[in-house]
Amino acid sequence: MQFSLIIPTLNEASNINPLLNSLFALDCLGDQFEVIIVDDGSTDGTPEKVKSWEATHNVRLIERHAEPDLTASILEGVAAARHPVIAVMDADLSHPSDRLAALVQPIVDGSHDVVVGSRYIPGGGTENWPFYREWLSRAGGLLARAICDVNDATSGFFAFRRALATHIPNNARGYKILLELLMAGQGQLRVKEIPICFRDRTRGTSKLSFSHNLIFLQRLIALAGGTVSIRTASRFAVVGFLGVFVDVLIYQWMISQGSGLALAHISSFIAAATFNYTLNSKWSFRLHHPGHLRWSQFIRFLTVGLFALLLRGGVLAWLVYGWGVGSEWAIFPAIIAAAGVNYLGSAFYVFPKADPPVPLHIRWRTAAIGIVGFVILLRLVYMGVAQLIPDEAYYWQYTQHMDLSFFDHPPMVAWLIWLGTTLAGQNEFGVRIGAFVCGLVAMGYLYALACNLYDKSTGMRSVLLLAVLPFGFATGLAMTPDAPLIAAWVATLYYMERTLLAGQTGRAWIGMGIAFGLGILSKYTLGLLGIAALIFALLDPLARRWLSRPHPYLAALLALVLFSPVIIWNMENNWASFLFQTDRIGGPQPVFSTHKLILYIAIVLTPVGLAAALLALRTLVSDPSQASRKRLFIGVFTGVPLLFFIAVSTFDAPRFHWNSPLWLALIPTMAWMLGQNNTHPKVAHALRAAWQPTLILLLLAYAFVLHYVALGIPGLPYRFLSEHYFWKETTAEVEKIALDIEHQTGQSPIIVGMSKWSIASALAFYQRSDPPLEIRSRNLFGVPAAMYDFWHPSATPSTRPILMIGMKRRTLELDQADGNIGHMLQEPTEIGARTIYRQDGVPLRTLYYRTASGYLGHTAATPVTPSQE
Ligand code: GDD
Ligand code: MN
């Protein structure tokens, strides 16, 4: 075979003879290859050893005298090579020379451009490597895989067409020339990986040092589109350090003057950020961006600053409110978190690398990693500080009455909350941790699904969309049945694609059974995927064959077994939840609501998302460049649930979030289109342009809302929807009123939440009284109230005082739309109102209440009509 083998050396004297002996002993290579040894000024006699081979064998020595560098050495070897096929290997016998023929062959026969000897594919491996080296290598490989799709992009054993070397940028340095080669190919290369076993050297020492790792990291960031050098990073650190002083001084001063946490940390942040930006743009990043301040750049800077600020508020609140850390100490970790966001934002977004341009799909990957990371951090930080919304409190209330299932929902949400609060305590974090984990699971399965349907770049963009689109962001944070539903829905889709489209047997079917079973334990809508699967199997001849095999039936059986708790509960409770669900759909008079459905879709997806979804559906119908089975799969799994919701909307009003999961099947296509910058019409182009601001604005909105509810925003009072929120402080006030009543009457009152289930649940979660308050819901007055009908069925008369709690004044009127409650109360008082304040004196909301000296019992005379919460 004709090829040039390049072997870089630095003090490898003891390895030269064994290496060259083994190479020239190989029959399979023939004698047409040349060996070029590039030595970087070894002092142990390596060059002399090599020279002794030059006379008798096709071996050449190149001696460099510049600063030693592996990449530069290899490039010099390439320049001197006689053959158009190049192979590179280490001198220390780590690489198996008997794999050389397999390495070179695909280049010689023209079928591939690059062949990699890979440790990290089946059949490959490492031997005798110390644990930390293995770990380091794997960590580096993982980072590299974010931007490069080769399993072992840091391998030192590879072959390529010589012409490719001209694309390697001049500033490439260090050990990872293969990564440079692959990235310079911009995804156009035909790459093959062959398994090799890497053996640690037995003679001499490794030259890989800590600084090589730093260089690797730096090159990786540059290849991903960031500006990072030791110089900018250290300057940034110096500026940041000075900024901390500005920040902390102003913060501490304001706290000492009695201002609230939010005002203090926001003011000091703005001062420090102005200070930092001035120094960073004039000094730290100046080399990379000479010239004066540009507005677009300044706006980007402000955006990054805002993200950092809103995140740091969460860290602060978490430490101060959640852990009781003094606010004077909590500011330091908060500053560190903000600095991390600021630095990465500066390097990748404010001052990105301009030259050479980074390809679009790599930019999207970097954006996806950054944004998804930020979303996860944001959830983690705020999850435990933001108070529960009433819905979450209601599902928590389920866990106080644990059961196999519940009247208005299947049990998964309750089981997850039970698990979370058992592990992490009866607090917001414990309630929400299940939703957080479900969010991660959904991301993982969506990534895998999109990789299978399209490619890795699309996979990463899909996760980005899921993380930022309203329904995706919310379900990974708020603990409602939709959290496990979304996760199970994607998982089911993933397994259905594996079985029905990719034709996998065995494990994938088991996975499908489990995902489906857990899915209907979360919410019954998941059943729509079963119908979609059946329709797909009927339409697709390849998938149809499964119908005559046992797999689908066994998977269905598995799902049924998982679902059995719901069936058992219903058998014991007169099929209550099934009746409730069918009731819900077939309301008394049909109301046409399709326009509402469209509005709701625009809410869960945003209008830009809705437009993207429509466009994606159109491509599925008409784009022949995508495989037709794949298009059918996505079309059916989106179309069937969509048509179902449209059909229902013609006679019944949907809740706004019901349609959410159906978009999961379409997100990969939407994400795929996001990265296509050719051949598509103007609309598609405009849409791609609209995505960037949409994603940023959404993310800012989430961070803003979380900061607002947890710490407040100075100058912005609480008004919007706040009567539904802040139950922690409100409950404390209710407990005070209850105590007053007890002092006056000698009896503790029965508390009645005057809503279907919101108020009673929120009060139950936040009450701290000992013994606990006795809390009822509005069903005391004969109005249906979901699970409260089971927990506290209509009560008998009582002489204990009654304390009714309302979010709005009108819910306490004696004569209500549902009927008159006045005659069920003994001596009702007038409606009282109290303003609820936060600890620091900020007004939060108003609490309405009314008392009575006794409850006369609920008279069935009042008409009972179901009412929506
Ligand atoms: N010319 C030249 N100049 N050669 C060098 C230099 C240099 O500055 N530094 C190292 N070498 C040579 C060594 O003499 C050896 O032949 C080869 O490059 C690999 O160096 P090692 O010091 O043995 O590296 P390693 O075993 O730690 O790293 C190997 O595995 C890494 C993957 O984890 C190499 O194959 C790396 O390329 C690979 O990334
Ligand atoms: Mn080595």
Automatic annotation (TrEMBL):
Keywords: Glycosyltransferase, Membrane, Transferase, Transmembrane, Transmembrane helix. Residues 4-164 form the Glycosyltransferase 2-like domain. The keyword Transferase applies. GO terms for biological process: dolichol-linked oligosaccharide biosynthetic process; GPI anchor biosynthetic process; polysaccharide biosynthetic process; protein O-linked glycosylation via mannose. InterPro entries: DPM1-like, Glyco_trans_2-like, GtrA_DPMS_TM, Nucleotide-diphossugar_trans, RgtA/B/C-like. GO terms for molecular function: dolichyl-phosphate beta-D-mannosyltransferase activity. PANTHER family: DOLICHOL-PHOSPHATE MANNOSYLTRANSFERASE SUBUNIT 1. This is Dolichol-phosphate mannosyltransferase. It comes from Nitrosomonas halophila.
